[in-house]
Amino acid sequence: MIYRRIALIGMGLVASSIALAAKRHGLAERIDGHAKSASTSELAVERGLVDKMHATPEEAVDGADLVVLCTPVSAFGSIVERIAPFLGKGATLSDVGSVKSHVIKTVAPLVPEDVHFIPAHPIAGTEHSGPQSGFAELFEGRWCILTPGADADQEAVDRLAGFWNAMGAQVDFMDADHHDLVLAVTSHAPHLIAYTMVGVADHLRRVTSSEVIKYSAAGFRDFTRIAASDPTMWRDVFLGNKQATLEILGRFTEELFALQRAIRTDQGDVLHKYFRETREIRRGIIEAGQDTALSDFGRRKDSENQP
Amino acid sequence: MIYRRIALIGMGLVASSIALAAKRHGLAERIDGHAKSASTSELAVERGLVDKMHATPEEAVDGADLVVLCTPVSAFGSIVERIAPFLGKGATLSDVGSVKSHVIKTVAPLVPEDVHFIPAHPIAGTEHSGPQSGFAELFEGRWCILTPGADADQEAVDRLAGFWNAMGAQVDFMDADHHDLVLAVTSHAPHLIAYTMVGVADHLRRVTSSEVIKYSAAGFRDFTRIAASDPTMWRDVFLGNKQATLEILGRFTEELFALQRAIRTDQGDVLHKYFRETREIRRGIIEAGQDTALSDFGRRKDSENQP
């Protein structure tokens, strides 16, 4: 038991996974929830994710010692405005948003003085959304980044870190701006690029959708997974991490143009050198346990893919 | 038995998979091979991939009724120059190259009149290379595109199509130029984009490699798989399909710039609409059996990922 009573605001993939993991590991006496849509609330009740779903966020947080904002980040401001008067003295307010500076700028001024605001970002997810997608193992072996302010209460920070550890995650601490830059590289730019490539394929007239689908195993299908992620969440991420995302995309197009030029001018050696170097990073990711070594992400269950 | 004697020139992932599949399904009386490097030849012998590895391509093709070029495409010209005098009357010469117009332009003029040249491209692969990576199931459920010339011998074409069918692939026929455009979309542009994104992450100074690796599960790691593909093969693909690849990359940067502008100018509705539409294609790919419906490509073996 790490918290007495947890309130989850929003009930998508991450919230439902927190609910299941917290229950499995016995991390709270009670879990309350709120979701804007009635169908989400019903699904959460059906799956038995929480002890009670509440009609308003105010009701859900009343009496909680941990409140976690799990909606798309654009909703954080209005939610915190509503719940602020109901947050208990000494309670911790956290979140799971993929951007941190923007969230801190929006939320911090609204948090009562006797409440600990400790922003968090679990680096975990799948392409599926909604309360039906959550599972207790989502955070196992993944990282959760906390970006507490310089004046944060150490005990409250340790407690939240312990909560994430207990759900199987490793915890890192980072400055919010640096978090946003790191995630622009490892998440936000790759997502925008994947969305764009899938959009381009969709918009071509000379190649049909049926052709794109049939021959997608040649590489394209890998992009479609992350381009199937939740549109609202990702709209908010890009608008909430504008500067770092645009900076990385600028670097990306710069290098893409250099490689396009190498293709146009037959500089095979430039291409070969570039492609050799990029192999190393994948090796590092596999060694760090952040991806499978099985070929094709282990999609096939054949003789080759038995480790 | 579809062919009496098959010769495979080059012994990487695709050739070794053909050898294993042809053997498993009894598609040839005998399989001969040639590889440029001694270590590749030794590995092929160790795995028992072929009946015999030969020191020269000339020796390997002597007496074969099907010869398949499986090296990087830049080697095709010089190989066919060498083997042309040894190709038997009525034999079929094919290949597995990822580009087709360039291959036809290079190879067709060198092929003797009494030999059937039928270019092919199996849309199958993994990020692993070499004779140790092949497996008999590689082509199962995948497509193989044949691009025979207008004057091709129908019987020889049907026989080659039957060979691919027997290894588990479905066969499609296409004009070579159209093949190159389709593959530019579903394979070549995505690979260059993935290589570029991984290169950008590698070249940043403000984000360390260790950070990129630790937080790669947020999307980036998906790109690293295809950016771990064979550098020589991919150099040749880009140089061999220059025009279509650059055309698609041009469309890609055009759309990327439009989305960057939408981010910069806070046009959330434009982003949301774009991200909603791209979900459809993934659904199509899964319904067509070209990718798994399991979340995260089925990387995890947990409760959620039991279909």
List keywords for this structure.
homodimer, 307 residues, alpha/beta, Rossmann fold, 6-phosphogluconate dehydrogenase C-terminal fold, 2 domains, 6-stranded parallel sheet, 3-stranded mixed sheet, 12 helices, 9 strands
Based on the coordinates given, report the CATH architecture of the largest domain in chain A: 3-Layer(aba) Sandwich
Task: Tell how many strands the DSSP assignment of chain A holds.
Answer: 9
Q: Strand order across the biggest sheet of chain A?
A: 3-2-1-4-5-6
Report the oligomer: homodimer
Overall, the morphology of chain A is globular
Instruction: Give the SSE string of chain A.
Output: EHEHEHEHEHEEEHEHHHHHH
Structural class of chain A: alpha/beta
Average pLDDT value of chain A? 95
State the CATH topology of the largest domain in chain A: Rossmann fold
Major sheet summary line of chain A: 6 strands, parallel
Q: How far is it from the N-terminal to the C-terminal residue of chain A, by CA?
A: 37 Å
Total discrete domains of chain A? 2
Structure overview:
- Two copies of one chain form a homodimer.
- In chain A, α2 (38-46) links the parallel β2 (28-34) and β3.
- Chain A has a six-stranded parallel sheet with strand order 3-2-1-4-5-6.
- The first copy, chain A, has two domains: 3-174, 3-Layer(aba) Sandwich (Rossmann fold), CATH 3.40.50; 178-295, 6-phosphogluconate dehydrogenase C-terminal fold (Orthogonal Bundle), CATH 1.10.3660.
- Chain A has twelve helices and nine strands.
- Chain A has 307 residues and is of the alpha/beta class.
- Helices cover 48% and strands 12% of the residues of chain A.
